[in-house]
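Subject line: Sequence and fold of a protein, written as structure tokens
Area: Proteins and the way their chains fold up in space.
Start of record: The labelled sequence and token lines come straight after this line.
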Amino acid sequence: MRNNIINISVLVLTIILNACTSEESNTKEDDSSIQEGLYLSQKPPGLIPEAFAPGIVSTEEYLESEVTFLPDMTELSFTRSGGKYEEPTLFVMQYKNDKWSNKPISSTDIDEYKERFNPSLSKILNLEPFKDIPIRGGAVSDKGTFYFYVLNYEDGSGYMSYSRLINGKYEKPQKMSKGINKGKYIAHPFVAPDESYLMWDAEKIDENTPDIYISFRRKDGSWGDAINMGMQINTALYEQRPRVTPDGKYLFFWKGDVKVREDGSTYVEGGPYWVDAQIIETLRPKH
């Protein structure tokens, strides 16, 4: 099971970070690819997560990554693999005149689009406070505070830390509290632009599939203990990589599972889900 967990994390990460080597990527392969409305004409979900855009983005035949929007919501991207997509293939859709349509991406533009949707942290990681820390990834708030995770895939050990940007320089990283650094395989943080909450995924010590957690910032500036986001979000499957849309309306995340073939080999299936971001407020401590 541990190898399966490592495989799914590596595979999903590969899907997000790697580009396809084909000449063009099309979000749909027929004339019905044009969709109206800000969210591909999809009926908005309530407090129960739903697969995003079935048949357009989410499919049963392929493995899709989570959906990422540009800050101005004019483009979205995801990747698809499996079947005829032997390599993770980047799909981009563009919103114009109240309609979404394919945006073919040439192989020469792949790196540019990867950077556009998932900006590299290389500049931050090359700064002095972080050079000797084996950082796997992170997120940055509007104030420039850097929240990141360190993770050892071999034994699941790791932790979440942060570093504030003060007078144009990052302070010495601070390890977050034990109330947040619970469990194993702690990874993939998303921080609210105003730093009012932090989300990430992690496994419980006695379980082998990740759940999504949230912590709210208290009035004194400290972070509250990790809150499991509950049965509406977390199931017996893998729930990972939470992120809220730039307009603040929806929480997107990836849900999937590891399956075993008759020959004993394994494969991953899953795709992007979305839910009304109001679910975050239902978890906020009343006091």
